[in-house]
Amino acid sequence: MKWQSDFRRWWEEAVKATDNHGKPPQEVQRQYPRYAALVSDLKRTNTELSKLAEDLLVIARARKRKPTRPAKVLPLPPTPEHPPEKQRDSTGDPPNVIGVISM
Hints:
The protein has 103 residues and is mainly α. It has a domain at 4-61. It is built from three helices and no strands. It is rod-shaped. The model has no long low-confidence stretch (mean pLDDT 81).
């Protein structure tokens, strides 16, 4: 943008000049009064864009893992303990129980 309007104005006049007929466009461009400054600025801009492109590649190729999110489900409270089981003797009856003898 910095150079566009000034160069375009100059270019339109340079193309109309009879001494430039038949010359390649590159040769006509070199006649621009501020050609050296324009080329220097373009080289600097190109270097900056190349560095930015390298930085973007580093970012794009980085394999960053997403941090693990904490669980959204709340843990369940512990279940109440079972009442202690009553011990049984070898017959399956609770101890200290007088067995009934069936006849």
